[in-house]
């Protein structure tokens, strides 16, 4: 249910100032990005970061992404290899997160990094996020603004639903253009390793690296959520992005009592993209799952082609299906 008491405001200059004041006081702000909405705090403020973990009910061994204005700010926080620079210059601002060795000058608190000696950094591709970070002059952590293990919010109203009581205000940046979280790539020695699929496709990564004659990226091993080891990147946790409804994948049609989430020309309760456009489907995915989850207890999902953004969409759907219908583990390690 939407928390109507939390202000949802357009990112005008006076609102950005108010958001910056709140962050400086150690409060949290709902932040639009091009991927999904984030729950923002000052990355250097361990108390504020602790509030982020609490609001998300997120385990503290799951590190956060530091959001910066540009590569120059990122280089004050983390150490870039040539491959990392190549990827940053190609995809920033945009849906790419780089996991890099932490720099000596890093100001991101250790709690945000979950004590690791690496840091995840990203330059978000949304003007409101860039304006707010520029105003602050320092990195903001912004995990997806959902409670841990649930669907990421792609609208300001969904942020209010998820974490409304915990934020001072929500900047309304409209619906998220990409709709899937950023692709997480580790450049920490060895070939670049994809830890989470997302808004930048594997094909685009491979092409960027091949163009510069760097090593091809490898897909990080997806660990099972049942493993008691800390996952390499907790976004890989199998129980993640879960609606309350039970999900049935690769469905050609709905069974009685099921909603059908379609793709391509077909009769469906909601259609991710009637024109079979994967970018449109990605942008609609979380919002439509959220909408169907409100009205149905069972959701059938049409097959999605595996190439391009389809890989990340299918990844999220598999995790949602694994964690849906009350099958979610209580000690979820999702983010
Ligand atoms: O698109 C996005 O990335 C969104 C928007 C708001 O920027 N943020 C987001 O944050 O999805 P979050 O916290 O929900 O997911 C961050 C992912 C997690 O899977 C986390 O485990 C991984 O990045 N991560 C963060 N720091 C890491 C590190 N040092 N090593 C490996 N994985 C890391
Ligand atoms: Mg998340």
How would a textbook summarize the main sheet?
Answer: 11 strands, mixed
| Alpha-beta content class | alpha/beta
Question: In whole angstroms, how far apart are the ends?
Answer: 21 Å
Number of strands: 15
Shape: globular
Radius of gyration: 19 Å
Helix run count = 9
Order of helices and strands: EHEEHEHHEEHEHEEEHEEEEHEH
Tell me, rounded to a whole number, the average pLDDT: 90
Bound molecule kinds, no repeats: threonylcarbamoyladenylate, magnesium ion
> Beta fraction of the residues?
15-25%
Unreliable stretches, pLDDT < 50, 5 or more residues?
222-231, 326-333
Task: Map the helices and strands.
Elements: E1 8-9, H1 13-24, E2 29-31, E3 38-42, H2 46-56, E4 65-67, H3 71-75, H4 82-91, E5 96-101, E6 118-122, H5 127-136, E7 140-141, H6 156-163, E8 169-171, E9 183-186, E10 193-196, H7 202-211, E11 218-219, E12 246-248, E13 259-262, E14 270-271, H8 278-295, E15 298-301, H9 309-323
Parallel strand pairs: 1-8, 2-8, 4-6, 5-9, 10-11, 12-15, 13-14, 13-15
Antiparallel strand pairs: 2-3, 3-7, 4-7, 5-6, 9-10
Helix pairs in contact: 1-5, 8-9
The structure holds threonylcarbamoyladenylate and magnesium ion.
Residues 143-144, 152, 335 line the site of magnesium ion (MG).
């Amino acid at each position: 249910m939407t928390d109507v008491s939390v202000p949802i405001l357009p990112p005008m200059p006076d609102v950005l100032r108010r958001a910056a004041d709140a962050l400086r006081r150690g409060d949290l702000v709902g932040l639009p990005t091009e991927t999904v909405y984030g729950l923002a705090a000052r990355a250097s403020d361990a108390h504020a970061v602790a509030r982020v973990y609490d609001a998300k009910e997120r385990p503290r061994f799951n590190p956060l992404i530091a959001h910066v204005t540009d590569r120059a700010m990122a280089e004050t926080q983390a150490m870039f290899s040539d491959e990392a620079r190549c990827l940053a210059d190609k995809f920033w601002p945009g849906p790419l997160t780089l996991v890099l060795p932490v720099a000596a000058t890093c100001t991101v608190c250790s709690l945000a990094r979950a004590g690791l000696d690496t840091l995840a950094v990203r330059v978000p591709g949304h003007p409101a996020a860039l304006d707010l970070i520029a105003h602050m002059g320092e990195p903001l952590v912004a995990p997806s603004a959902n409670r841990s293990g649930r669907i990421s919010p792609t609208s300001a109203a969904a942020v209010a639903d998820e974490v409304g009581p915990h934020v001072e205000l929500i900047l309304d940046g409209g619906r998220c253009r990409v709709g899937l979280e950023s692709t997480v790539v580790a450049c920490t020695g060895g070939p670049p390793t994809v830890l989470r699929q997302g808004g930048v496709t594997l094909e685009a990564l491979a092409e960027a690296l091949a163009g510069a004659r760097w090593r091809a990226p490898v897909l990080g091993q997806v660990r099972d959520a049942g493993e008691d080891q800390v996952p390499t990147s907790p976004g890989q946790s199998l129980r993640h992005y879960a609606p309350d409804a039970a999900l049935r994948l690769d469905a050609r049609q709905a069974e009685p009592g099921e909603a059908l989430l379609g793709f391509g020309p077909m009769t469906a309760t909601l259609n991710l993209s009637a024109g079979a456009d994967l970018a449109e489907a990605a942008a609609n995915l979380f919002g439509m799952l959220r909408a169907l989850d409100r009205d149905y207890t069972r959701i059938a999902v049409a097959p999605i082609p595996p190439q391009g953004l389809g890989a990340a969409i299918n990844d999220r759907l598999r995790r949602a299906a694994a964690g849906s219908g009350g099958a979610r583990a209580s000690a979820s390690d999702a983010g």
